[in-house]
Design goal:
- The chain has 177 residues and is an alpha+beta fold.
- It has two domains: 84 residues, no CATH class; 59 residues, Nuclear Transport Factor 2, Chain: A, CATH 3.10.450.
- It contains four helices and four strands; from the N terminus they run H-H-E-E-E-E-H-H.
- A four-stranded antiparallel β-sheet has the order 1-2-3-4, with helices on one face.
- A hairpin with a 3-residue loop joins strand 2 and strand 3.
- It is elongated, with a radius of gyration of 26 Å.
- The two termini are 33 Å apart.
Length: 177
């Protein structure tokens, strides 16, 4: 293919991919954008992710059994045993154990006194699962959201190409004397 013809071919396919790729990726991209904004703000907005509560500072003095007992005592957490706990996040510098329950609640327990410092709904995990598509189904995550991400990358590349071509063409033209 001659250079001019090849460039026209690339331009034509870039426009087609840009037009139809944007239609195909529109809904997944909208979901990613609408959930990405709150995820960027999760540390600033307590409704999304509860801030770390301040408690007595000192050396950890309670064990896992005391932390579990404190969480079981919180009725809204819905914890009867370790099977109902998704994650345990120990923060030694803040003397806090953040217990993420399967119910969506986060219970913060002092590692010094064993008292419950805070109980709140943790929405960032739900928002994150919507963001990556895993909330819907594993197929949606890998079969729709992943290809949409590849299409968005192609849209970026073709958009850069379509933006750059007129500028390069203009530089190649001989200037009138």
């Amino acid at each position: 293919m001659r250079p001019n013809r090849a460039r026209r071919w690339v331009n034509r396919w870039s426009r087609r991919l840009h037009r139809w790729g944007s239609v195909a990726a529109a809904l997944p991209l909208l979901i990613v954008l609408l959930t990405g904004i709150p995820l960027l703000l999760k540390k600033q907005i307590g409704w999304i992710q509860p801030p770390t509560a301040a408690g007595p500072v000192g050396e950890p003095a309670v064990g896992f059994d005391a932390i579990l007992a404190a969480v079981v005592a919180v009725p809204e957490a819905g914890v009867a045993g370790w099977a109902d706990i998704d994650r345990l996040d120990i923060r030694p510098e803040e003397a806090v154990a953040k217990v993420r329950c399967d119910s969506g609640y986060e219970v913060q327990v002092s590692t010094v006194s064993g008292e419950v410092l805070q109980t709140a709904m943790r929405r960032s995990d739900l928002i994150e699962s919507l963001h990556d598509g895993s909330w819907f189904h594993e197929f949606v995550k890998l079969g729709i959201f992943l290809p949409s991400a590849v299409v968005v990358l192609a849209l970026w590349i073709t958009g850069a190409w379509l933006w750059l071509m007129p500028h390069l063409r203009q530089k190649r033209r001989p200037r009138p004397a």
